[in-house]
Each structure stands twice: as structure tokens, then as C-alpha cells.
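User: Predict the full complex structure for these chains.
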Amino acid sequence: MSDVYAVRRGQLRDRCAAVGSAAALVSRPANVRYLAGGAPPGAVLLLGPGEDVLLCPRDPAGDPSDGRTDGRTDDQLRVSPLPDSDGDPVVAAAALAGSSGAESLAVEEHHLTVSRHRAMGSVAPRLRLADLGATVEQLRVVKDEEEIACLRIAAEITDQALGELLESILVGRTERHLALELERRLVDHGADGPAFATSVATGPNSGQGRHRPSDRRVEEGDFLSVCLGANYRGYRCEIGRTFVIGTTPAEWQIELYDLVFAAQRAGREALVPGAAYRDVDRAARHILDSAGHGRSLAPWTGHGVGLEIDEDPQLTPAAMGKLDACVPVTVEPGVHLPGRGGVRIDDTLVVRPEADGGPELLTITTKELLAL
Amino acid sequence: MSDVYAVRRGQLRDRCAAVGSAAALVSRPANVRYLAGGAPPGAVLLLGPGEDVLLCPRDPAGDPSDGRTDGRTDDQLRVSPLPDSDGDPVVAAAALAGSSGAESLAVEEHHLTVSRHRAMGSVAPRLRLADLGATVEQLRVVKDEEEIACLRIAAEITDQALGELLESILVGRTERHLALELERRLVDHGADGPAFATSVATGPNSGQGRHRPSDRRVEEGDFLSVCLGANYRGYRCEIGRTFVIGTTPAEWQIELYDLVFAAQRAGREALVPGAAYRDVDRAARHILDSAGHGRSLAPWTGHGVGLEIDEDPQLTPAAMGKLDACVPVTVEPGVHLPGRGGVRIDDTLVVRPEADGGPELLTITTKELLAL
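Assistant: Here is the predicted structure of the two-chain assembly.
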């Protein structure tokens, strides 16, 4: 179980060596978790030049603790709680690397603040601080089967929570209450929590991907769009669906729904190993664009998921790169008509070769236009 | 209404001028909100040298928008959405400051990452980037009466949510469910959301301030400690209480409760304008220390609250500085006995002169040891 972390650290060490840095400091929380298993908030990982060390802030409760919290852990990693509760683990790591004779230390400049970086320089003035860049994020893009299994369970939980909501009375309830109920149901079914703030959007708010739930109540004739996901052992998935409230959808609602459905299907079908990110985006975007909605589209039509809800790759018109097998992504086009509302349909899928049956759909709630 | 933001920006401008910087860039979200009212995620505030500008990321939904979201806004502030959805507002701000002829720009080095700071330098190579430090955080310490009114409402909501929980059946329910129910009740009573992740701790977990709710169920004879707070219009308060489950508390439970209660009262009574932060901490800490719990205490016994749940001042043994009137703080000592559990009692209060009646208690739920 703990081998997987040692293997990942070995991969990172190889990449560091290739750019001439014998030591690296990983501070971004999802990256620390990827390389060390469960770690307390604020812990950072010092990789080489000697043994690897997980430096943890002192437990604020003051209890004796090895600094470990939830999640899988790794017996091969030395865990070092800081002696001082005011101490910053990145500064302690710089001091340790400096005193161990390392000449350079690669750090995550996209995560460290200027103040912390400067404090590291002060305690280890002879240590050259290089940039590790997004090396760990790149390692995280392709998932192993154990990671995909966590995502699959997260998606099952999400489908269950959404399915139960659809069986309840919706008219008259507020967006905010529906969102809270969905989050409660996620936890009921075994999620560690929501993967992100649940979005529920009704009537004129519908179709907006990141709408913050308001006190607007569900009314007859509304579009209702929801976007939610479970966090299961750190792995986060996402589903988005749009429904219509009442017996019969209006003509414009059916047309808009069919259009977004066609765009989302095109995006899903474009998910093959070797496809350029931008081509997947274009497959979905082109359909909405041709129908005259190009100007109002979000800048992405999907993105990677894993230990963070929004990670590489980005499915955008300008993205560089190609899909690999075993990369989980969302496909989530949507159209919002100001003042009227709109439609968003969002799935989490795993890229798989055609020989293995093509993309694996994790979020299986129906995409028919249901009238609730 | 919007005057308050212009006044705050004037204060910041004075402080910048005093250290020789005509322009400042505020990027830390709570600081932006303090100076500009409601602002979308990622917005940053450029102060001078010309007019003040709020630079906002392009709305990802692509809808026409002035970039404003919830909260009070400020009509005197120019709002500038970025043309490009990939653009970083801090880089755009550096370019704008550079092209407007500013020689130096003070930035929040404790918030900006090394990567963003470097990108700013690249687009405006002749602009000297100075450090604004915690100037805005310092302005935020003393609250005006409108801010205190928001905190008072947040505390009322929190007391209501907690009061309802106490009337329900608790035995057999999990920590996780109780925490979710408390958060739902906060929203029911008008909170914008929880001020922080609600903590519910039972039995051996009780008394730990930041315990993450688990699947442990409430049992007869347990201590039950809860810590929660409402976010109302951005302002966050905190309450913590410990109860005993069943009819009669054990002798050790009564003793421990009385001890923590005495420490918390001493801390509250030390809240007078002019008191040193460390003396407030010592008043509470000394009582627990004398009873032999010194080694297991958290490094703080309280902290400021406002737009963030944990802000200046810090009530710790090494803190420098003195309390002013109109500073809201928590007083939250606790003792946790490994394997047995413990007690934490936490209130939010506003420092007031004795002539005005002394510290104003915002969280008024009883601190008697209730048997539930």
C-alpha cells in the first residue's frame, strides 16, 4: 500500500535529477498528499538529498501525535513534527536541506508566497532555490487503477445523492436548501464531504456552471440545473444535470436541451487516447458556436479531476497537449441565456482506449430531459 | 454606504505615502473585500497613483457583468473586468501601474506567490515592487459599529442553531451528522454559510478545538463538544460549548469543566482596552497551567475574528501588542485528556471600555454544564 508513494517519489526524484537538482520541496497540499499519503494541514515534503522527510506543523492541540491524519500513509517516510508551533515547515525544510549540504533546492514557486520564499533564503543563504514548476501536477495527470477506483466510488455516491433528490418534492424550495440537502446526502452515502461547493440554479439562474445558491425558490416551468460531486478519500468527481419543473417543457427548453446534449455527446465521443485537448474542446464548442451561442460560452468545456476538482488537463481552445489513457476529465458544456436560464450537462469520464470500450463514464445518472 | 470603503482606502493611501509608495496592490481576498466591498473571487484592488481600480477575472460564464457579486459595493470605484479569461489580475495591475508612471508598487508579499510576483516584474520591469506587509490586516483589527452589527447577527444565528440542536435527541447520532445538521440550521436562520468547518467531538475526541467530525456516535456518559459559527455578510463568529450526555456527569467531568470554565472566565475578564495580548492569554492559561495541564494546551487561548475566522490579534504567550476598544476576539481555552476526552469553552466578545459595561458578549448560549 505504501509502496505507491515511494514509487511516486522516485519518479519525482528522477525528474529533479534530470534538471540538475538533487533536492526538492513540495508544499502544495494536493501534491504533498499525492507523494506522502494522508498528511496534516500545512505539512510539506522534503525530497532528498538524504532521506525523505515529511515536516509537519506542531499539532495545535498539543497532543502527542506523529502528525498523521486521515488517508493512506507511508511507513517508509520519516515524519518530523516541528518543535515550535510558530515555525513554518518550509523554512525548517530549507534549514535542513542547507545543513545537509545540498547546493540547490527546487521549490514550488507557483505555491510559495514571496514572504515564505524569502524566509527560506534567510535561513539557508548558500542554498540556491530553483523552481520545481508543475512537475508534480504533471505526474498526477495519469491515474493508477486505485485512484480511478476512488473516483468511481465518488461518482457512485454522487449519483445516489442526486437520484434521491429527484424523488423529492422540489417546487417551493430554495436553491440554498436543495444544495445543503445534496451535500448532506453525499455524506450519508459515505463521502468525506462535497468535492466543491454544490451549485443549484433555478429559472433565470439555470445553466450557469458556478452559480452560488440563492434564496430563489423552484417554480413551475423552471429549468433546474445542479452541479455536485463527492470527495472520497481525497478524490473528487463532478456531475451536472439540468431538469425542467412541471409536466411539459416549453419548445425553447427542448431545443436548448437537445443542443447542449449534442455538444456534450460530441465532447464525450472525442475522448480517445492521443486526442489533442483543444480538439476535444472544439468538438463540443463547435456545435454551440454554430447555433449562435459562441460569445457566451465559458472558456473551457472540461478539465481534469483527481485530488483537486480542477486540475490538468484543461479542455480549452488554446490548451497544448494530448490525452493519455487513464486520465479522468469532465465534459461540461453549457449555454446560459441572460434573463431566461439555460442548460448545462456535465459528466466525469476516464479516457480509455477503444479496445477497452472507449471512455468510461463514471457519472451514470440519466441525461434524458426529465420533467420533475 | 459606499463611503466607508473610500475612507478605508484613504487610510491605506496615507500609510503607503508614509513609507514612500504612491501605489499599492491588494490581492488577499479578505483585504480586497474590506477595501472594495463585495468583489468576485480573484479580484484585486489597485490603489493609485491615479484612480483606484478593481481588476476582476473575466466572468467564466462569459455573461455580461460588471464583475460584482454579493455584499455591499462601492460606486466610487472603477471596476475593470480583464479582457482575457487566462489573464491574471495582479499582472494586469502591474502593467497598468507601470504604464501610469508609478515608480513603485507595494504588494502583499505574504499573499502573492513567487510565480505571480515574477510575472508582475516581467510586464513592468521599471516598476519597483515593495512590500505592503500586513498593513491592511492592521487596519482591519478595530471594527466599526456596522461591522460589529454583522458579527452580532452572526452570533445570534449561531446561538439559535446551537439551541435547536440541544433540544433534539443526540445519543446514537454520529459527529458528522450533528455537524451537518448544525450547518443546515445556520443557513436556515439566515447565515450565508458556516464561518468555518463545524467541529463536533464526542467521548475521547471531546475538548479538541479543531477535531474533524468522524463516524463516532454519541454515547451515554460522553462529553460532547461542539464548535461552530455563522458567516453573515462576510463576518464570522465562533462559539464552543461542552455538554455531558446522560443524567449525571462523573466527578472528573465536573472538575475538569469547572477548571476550564474558570480559565475562560478569567480570559473574558481580562478583555479591557489597553490590556496586553499576552496578559489576556496568561489570565486563562495560568489557571490551566497551575492545575497541571500546561504541556497539553494549544498555543493560543483566543484570536481576532471579522472577515476571516482567524485574524489579528493572536492571544498567545509571545504576542506583542495591546487590545483596543471595538476589537472582537474569541476566548477559547480547553483541555483534552488523551483517551478520555475534555472540555473547551469558546465565546466571541467585543472589547469595550469599562464605562460602557466592559466586554460585550456576542455568543450568549449558557455556559452551565448541561446534561443532555
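Chain A has two domains: 3-140, 145-361.
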